[in-house]
């Protein structure tokens, strides 16, 4: 071997050592790693305005990264039935078509929520029988329109107050808690194959609200109506994220009722501009959530609430907070991305 070829050989060997794990990691992606670890999917929320951002779409369309997508807004009541009996599916269809094109599962979100509810419903002054009819009609029309396309439906979203107890929304005020089983029954009748979820936040650890969510599952079951899962939204704050033990035990409470759990809207916000230490802690916090899900067979998948800080809801809602997602504003991965991948990879 000449001196030159010896030098070349050792250079190549060195670059192989450096490139090996990096290229393997880039090729794997979050969804590929999640599925290898036994989950059904790793997914992301998205929204119609972002679909014109080609750099964003290149990453979203990669099913090695995301095996599932959720429409962040476009299947909600105000978009789908803005006035009584007038249905508009165009925006929701765009997200459903995207999922089809990318061979990604679709979590449809959501059918009944007090927010993004048009005033013709919330302030209509309807009596019990009429509101039940409006609720059933909305659910039947929307679920039938998407029949066969929704892997999951978030049937009822955030029925509980922050500290527990039913939210005093128009459905509860007019119909009482029965609006929840009525909603699940209508969804089950319209698409028997979709998995039907109750979805909420602050139910990821033992608390009054968590126990009330457990009771919602029991309520639906007591009516003999199908409920398949509970969505833990998992909107957390860096350094205040639930512990792995607490989350595992919260998941187990639902598993004990025979329903599955999905992490449906994961993000972990911090004050901005984010410091190096905060982003390092954020990576640890993401790993905690992933590890809790992996430790419980009832936990079947994880969805982040969009994948990049560029399109996060957080700064618009929590002034001074942001940087909540694994990709930054420039669509570059952060420490959180490596943390999630490493947690999935060590499963
Ligand atoms: O559609 C109007 C548009 O016509 C108007 O010009 C614009 C002006 O601000 O507002 C648009 O509506 C916004 C809507 O998103 C669609 O972009 C609302 O102001 C804005 O409040 C709304 O925020 C959404 C939020 O739900 C509403 O509560 C977020 O994008 C969405 O990510 C967020 O998602 C929720 C989940 O559904 C349930 N769990 C919590 C999660 C985060 O809040």
Automatic annotation (TrEMBL):
One of its GO terms (molecular function) is hydrolase activity. Residues 33-343 form the GH10 domain. Pathway: Glycan degradation; xylan degradation. It comes from the Eukaryota. Its EC number is 3.2.1.8. Residues 1-19 form the signal peptide. It is an enzyme of class 3 (hydrolase). InterPro entries: GH, GH10, GH10_AS, GH10_dom. Keywords: Carbohydrate metabolism, Glycosidase, Hydrolase, Polysaccharide degradation, Secreted, Signal, Xylan degradation. It is found in: Secreted. SMART domains: Glyco_10. It catalyses: Endohydrolysis of (1->4)-beta-D-xylosidic linkages in xylans. The active site is at residue 265. Pfam families: Glyco_hydro_10. Belongs to the glycosyl hydrolase 10 (cellulase F) family. This is Beta-xylanase. The lineage of its organism: Eukaryota, Fungi, Dikarya, Ascomycota, Pezizomycotina.
């Amino acid at each position: 071997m000449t001196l030159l070829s010896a030098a070349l050989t050792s250079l190549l060997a060195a670059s192989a050592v450096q490139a090996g794990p990096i290229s393997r990691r880039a090729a794997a992606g979050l969804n590929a790693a999640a599925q290898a670890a036994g989950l059904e999917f790793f997914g992301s929320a998205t929204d119609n305005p972002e679909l014109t951002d080609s750099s964003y779409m290149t990453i979203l369309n990669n099913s090695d990264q995301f095996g599932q997508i959720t429409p962040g807004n476009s299947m909600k009541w105000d978009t789908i039935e803005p006035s009584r009996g007038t249905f508009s599916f165009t925006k929701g269809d765009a997200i459903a078509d995207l999922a089809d094109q990318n061979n990604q599962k679709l979590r449809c979100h959501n059918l009944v929520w007090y927010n993004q509810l048009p005033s013709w419903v919330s302030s209509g002054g309807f009596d019990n029988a009429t509101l039940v009819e409006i609720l059933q009609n909305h659910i039947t029309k929307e679920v039938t329109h998407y029949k066969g396309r929704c892997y999951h439906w978030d049937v009822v979203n955030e029925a509980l107050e922050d500290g527990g107890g039913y939210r005093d929304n128009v459905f509860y005020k007019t119909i009482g808690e029965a609006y929840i089983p009525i909603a699940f029954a209508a969804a089950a009748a319209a698409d028997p194959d979709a998995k039907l979820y109750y979805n909420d936040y602050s139910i990821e650890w033992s608390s009054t609200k968590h126990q009330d969510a457990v009771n919602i599952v029991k309520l639906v079951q007591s009516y003999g109506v199908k409920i398949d899962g509970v969505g833990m939204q998992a909107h957390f704050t860096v350094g205040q994220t639930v512990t792995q033990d607490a989350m595992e035990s919260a998941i187990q409470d639902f598993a004990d009722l025979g329903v599955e759990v999905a992490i449906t809207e994961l993000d972990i916000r911090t004050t901005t501009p984010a410091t190096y230490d905060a982003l390092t802690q954020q990576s640890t916090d993401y790993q905690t959530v992933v590890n809790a899900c992996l430790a419980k067979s009832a936990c079947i998948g994880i969805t982040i609430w969009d994948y990049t800080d560029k399109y996060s809801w957080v700064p618009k809602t929590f002034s001074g907070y942001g940087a909540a997602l694994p990709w930054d504003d420039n669509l570059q991965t952060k420490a959180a991305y490596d943390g999630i991948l490493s947690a999935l990879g060590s499963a």
